[in-house]
Known about the structure:
With 190 residues, this protein is an all-beta fold. Helix content is 2%, strand content 53%. The protein has one helix and 13 strands; from the N terminus they run βββββββββββββα. The chain has a five-stranded antiparallel beta sheet, with no helix packed on it. A four-stranded antiparallel beta sheet has the order 2-1-3-4, with no helix packed on it. The chain is elongated and about 70 Å long. The model has no long low-confidence stretch (mean pLDDT 89).
Amino acid sequence: DATVAIANDTWHTFLIGGPGKDPQGFFSTSLSPTLPTGFVWKKYIHSIIRASGAILAFQQYDDEMWLDTPVLDETQTAPGTSAVTITLESVPNRVQVRALLNIATNNDSTNHAVYLSSLDNADVAASLGAAPLGSVSEQTNAAATNVHGGEATVWTSTARGIRFRQSASGASDETYIVVRGWIDALRRQQ
């Protein structure tokens, strides 16, 4: 919106136009912005994130947005085996996206799985042998510090929320979640 100061936030980009108006770019923190006088239509392009006074640099491939420098968004110590709801600060706010993530765990459990899920889905326990399994998992024969990781995707809420659950958790266990980018489903609907 023309009256909004540039701040750290999610900025949705649009192409706007109207009778006798050349199409032009428009940025707003709202998905339903008030358009300038004379502009009557808008087309959503994608969302960008401004953090620490700068736009997070990215590469766009159709509806995929890949951060030039992935961001460590979450670190949890001893998260337990119940669901943990987290907010991914490095994906767009106010729009549901499919987050592209790296996840790593450092744990003392001999058999361990971590399951990531959307807040739209049922809260289901992570498992090594039953559905839904784990987004990342490891089975070992002896108790020792085990580090494992992998890639995962999960749909966020419009408030950037997701959840994860671990099948086992000790006092020194750590879980790390890095945002590599996101798939912008709203772009597909335009």
